[in-house]
Amino acid sequence: MKRNYILEENVECKLSDGTILRSDVYRPNDDHRYPVLMLRLPYDKKTPRYFNEYVEVPRMVDAGYIVILQDVRGRFASDGAFYPFVNERKDGYESVEWAASLPCSNGKVGLFGMSYHGYTQFAAAAEMPPSLKAIAPVMSMTDPWTGMLHNENALVEIGSFATWTLESILPNMLKRRGEKRNVQQYTDDLPDWISYAPSNTWPPLKELDPNSFFFDFINKNMNQEMIEYISLYDHLQEMKVPALFIGGWFDSLLKSTIKAYQNYTGPSMLWIGPWTHTEMTGRAGECYFEDSATSIGMDKIQDPTELHIRWFDHWLKDKPLAIDKSVHLYKMGQKTWEALDRLPASVHVQHFYLESNGDARTLHGDGRLMMEPTTIDSLNKLLLDPKNPVPSYGGNSIVAGQEAGMFDQRKIQSRKDVLVYTSRPLETPLNIYGLVQADIWASSPSSLLDIFIRVSDVNPDGRAYNIVDSFHREVVNKDQPARIQMGVNYTAYQVKAGHSIRIEIAASNAPQYDVNQNNGQTSITASNGLPAYETIYHSKRYPSNIILPLENT
User: Fold this and answer.
1) pTM summary value
2) Most CB atoms closer than 10 Å: which of 48, 162, 278, 473?
């Protein structure tokens, strides 16, 4: 098929410090001026995924845009040295203004991209380049890893951090240095390597790149000024450029996407589908959701590319948006979308209280979920063996060897170090809509208390598919009951009549998160932990429960 665009490769953008960034420029095959859509990424602008998978560049050009894919500083064809996040604000500002000044540009620029290149949009917007007219951050974040930098006891999503560093970043860094290292010896076995402890001496990077930024983040070797500079969350209320937020119910950055949207003060729109961080086809693990890859939303928009074009047509070409509402959510289990003026704030909730006779271990134990507070005073011991942690499986994971989405969790729920509580079959459908919360009473044998919670939909045939999950760590007084209140995650999901709700609780979730060593340390800095028991309480005095937000009727 004959292409109907002009491609100029490795066009140079010279920054004020002399560094040259290189871009591939796709533009209509004529001499007219057009607005620019730009993607700034660290993953190689030649990768097909960024040309015709997540959005389709040729269609954006056909819609009357110049599309620029730019390697950020220190990556692939661009000059300079790469260090995550720290250069994206100033570089982003200058790149936007460079794009606006191109001979074929009409001076209006929009930014798009997902994950890291969603962050590059926020970074540029924080500097307020005058030519930037709209952004479209997909499955992104505004405060990358700053939680673990601010708090020495914070959870570390070590699995995704290690995966990203070794697979996505390191190979090109070594190539640029002319170092012929055998990265594949580690990437082939990466699912095993990411479980190595302690992480601050991780062998793959200690051998291949001992001065890696990975160790700076892990060991908190960054000054406070730099931490504050890369954290953009506090700048969201200053950003006025229109923003299209897109998230996925099974994306690892769902909470970050919603948090950013809620605190954004410029014109904005939010779409959330049954998508993972790597797939927007409608498939999420073992489940498939209709009308979520094509014909999306109440407006039946063709696909994410068409959504982007409509968004930028409105803000860069003054065309009618023709999408009435600001929030668009896919309702899993109902095979439909809903359009709303704002994120739903649930008026009604359903509490499910944990109850047991003292042995809720495994799905074959006596753990129950009750709709009223329990009258039975009991507790359950929860094993945490640092050498044999409960494995991550599905959900919002983005870890080597793992797949995100919905999976039958019975294998995990059969472990002796997992507590399981199941409701009676529902008499009517239950529409969960919003932020699922947990209110759990627990104690720890050390100063660190770790709790992983998963909510599942149990089919009549016994299959138990995860809906939402989350991991939480808190500093506590040793062996003293503590109340742990946590937002699990957001969802829009219908549990059908005849199905049951199930809650599982574990004290670990590896390799997605670092592992508590039961001695005040974690697998980030130690590997000498011994098995020990946390305690989960459920009684009149300690009414542990899960809170499900219900769809307003």
Assistant:
1) 0.96
2) 162
